[in-house]
Amino acid sequence: MKLVLGGVILLIVAGMGYIRLAPGDVERWHVMPDEVTEQTLPGGAIRVIPSADGAFERLDAIIRTTPRTHVLAGTPDSGMITYVTRSAVFGFPDYTTLRRAGDQLEIYGRLRFGKSDLGVNATRIDGWLMRLRQGG
Question: Which InterPro entries does this UniProt record tie to the protein (predicted)?
Answer without folding.
Answer: DUF1499
